[in-house]
Design brief:
Helix content is about 15%, strand content about 40%. It is an alpha+beta fold. It has one domain: Jelly Rolls (Sandwich). The structure holds calcium ion (2 copies).
Length: about 230
């Protein structure tokens, strides 16, 4: 009897507290452009290649995935953007860093929020040896902090607080292999799971920003991305 009652209570509390994630967007990139000269990603993806790379192509649909590569004339990492639009949510993808220096960033932004530079809220950056989570909203992209840093006038007491805005987790991410990442955002906490194993969690106030309006994939060299999904879990 007791076991049954406990079981039932657990079931009820689970069903009350569980927020079933709602799929907002999914892309398996199983398509091709109508030509190979210019970017034509489709499915609502945009880039900054017109401004940042003199219009040169930096994103290619290839073999059923997205091949992102920085053009030699580009003055900024490639930024491949898609609407997100959640408070709590999950971003999943498969990715491949083919070369030792490759990295891939999942940047979250709210372009309507003017308290930071260019909408930057926070990011998760993957290299072959680490996963780094950084709160940008209350850290280096906060307007006042960014301006003081650029002017070289950032007080040491604020500089000291920036160390708490980022956390690096060592992780072995083999080059030239496909890996699965899950980025879960809940309240002020991000949890990163790599190939079904938890890498770590990081909490910081900027992560709780209510509107994650935009996902930007940031690629300073080269990266492959496939099977990207965005869920809301609010
Ligand atoms: Ca292509
Ligand atoms: Ca695919």
């Amino acid at each position: 009897m007791i076991t049954k009652a406990v079981f039932l209570t657990t079931l009820i509390s689970c069903s009350l507290s569980a927020k079933e994630p709602k799929l907002l967007f999914a892309d398996d990139f199983e398509r091709n452009e109508s030509q190979e000269e210019t970017e034509e990603i489709g499915e609502g993806w945009t880039t900054e290649s017109a401004n940042r790379a003199q219009g040169n192509k930096q994103v290619d649909l290839r073999d059923g995935h997205l091949h992102i590569y920085m053009h030699e004339v580009a003055d900024h990492a490639v930024s491949v953007r898609h609407e997100a639009g959640f408070e709590n949510g999950i971003v999943e993808a498969r990715f491949n860093l083919e070369h030792a220096d490759d990295q891939l960033g999942f940047n979250f932004a709210d372009m309507t929020y003017k308290g930071v530079h260019a909408g930057h809220l926070f990011r998760v950056v993957l290299t072959n040896s680490s996963v780094t989570i950084t709160d940008l909203k209350t850290g280096i992209m906060k307007k006042e902090i960014r301006e003081m840093r650029k002017a070289g006038s950032l007080p040491p007491e604020i500089e000291n607080t920036l160390k708490d805005k980022t956390k690096r987790f060592p992780a072995k991410i083999k080059n030239d292999k496909w890996h699965a990442i899950v980025i879960k955002i809940e309240g002020d906490e991000i949890t990163v799971t790599l190939n079904k194993r938890k890498v770590g969690s990081f909490s910081s106030p900027g992560i709780a920003h209510p509107e994650k309006g935009l996902l930007r994939l940031s690629v300073p060299r080269e990266a492959l991305v496939d099977d990207l999904k965005i869920y809301s879990a609010s």
